[in-house]
Amino acid sequence: MINPFSRTFNVGELETFQFLSQVMLFERLKNMEMARFLTALHQRKYTRDEVVFFSGDPSQALYIVKSGRINLTIDIKDNFEIINEVNKGEAFGENTLLENVTRIYTAIVASEEAELLVIPHFAIQEVFDSYPKIKAKMMTSLAEFYNQNNRRLFKSYKTSFGFFNLQEMFDRNKEETR
C-alpha cells in the first residue's frame, strides 16, 4: 500500500539522489535521507589551477565532483606533491564530517573546468544532530574510507621501506608540537 503522506520527489531531485548514491559517503542513505541535504547543496564552478581549499584551512564544507578533476596535494617546502586525483562521483574534504578539524591537504583544480557540489559543514552537522541514523551511516562510510586509506598507506610503506618512519604517524606528542 502506498503511503499518501510520503514525499514524492521531482526528476531533478531523483537525478541528484542517483548521483549521490554513487558517492561513497552517501551510498548507505535512502532518498528521504539524502533529501535532508538538498536545501544546503549548491553547485560551484572552478577553473584550472584554482584552489578549492588549502591545507590548514578550517574544514568548512564537503565537496563532490560533478565534472572535472581535482588534485589533492600535500605541501612539501615550496612544492605541492599530488597524493590523489579526485574525479566525477567522488568526494573530498571528507573530514568536514568531523567537528573542529582543519584540512590535511590542499585541493587544486586539475582540469580546464570543474563543477562541484558543495555541502557546508554547518548543514551537515544540523542533519547529524537531527537525524542520528544518517550520521551513523555516513560515519560508517567515513571509517571505511579511512580504513582503505590506511591499507594503501601501509602497502605503500612496505614497498618503500626505509624512506619514511611510519612510527611518526602514531606518535601523538610529535603531532602536537608541529
List keywords for this structure.
single chain, 178 residues, alpha+beta, Jelly Rolls, four-stranded antiparallel sheet, 6 helices, 35% helix, 25% strand, globular, cNMP-bd_dom_sf, cNMP-bd_dom
Annotate the secondary structure layout.
Blueprint (H helix, E strand, L loop, with lengths): L10 H10 L10 H4 L7 E6 L3 E3 L7 E7 L2 E7 L2 E8 L4 E2 L13 E4 L3 E8 H10 L1 H28 L7 H4 L1 H6 L1
Antiparallel strand pairs: 1-8, 2-7, 3-6, 3-8, 4-5, 4-7
What fraction, in percent, of the residue positions are helical? 25-40%
β-strand number: 8
| Strand order in the largest sheet | 1-8-3-6
Radius of gyration from the CA trace? 18 Å
Q: How does the helix and strand content classify structurally?
A: alpha+beta
By DSSP (H or I, 4+ residues per run), the number of helices equals 6
CATH structural fold name:
Jelly Rolls
CATH C-level name: Mainly Beta
**CATH homology group:** Jelly Rolls
Oligomer: single chain
β-strand percent reads 25-35%
Stretches where pLDDT is under 50 for at least 5 consecutive residues are none
What is the ordering of alpha helices and beta strands? HHEEEEEEEEHHHH
Q: Biggest sheet, in brief?
A: 4 strands, antiparallel
CATH arch. level architecture = Sandwich
Number of domains: 1
Shape label: globular
Whole-number average pLDDT?
88
Domain Cyclic nucleotide-binding: 25-145
Organism: Cecembia rubra
Protein name: Cyclic nucleotide-binding domain-containing protein
Pfam family, one: cNMP_binding
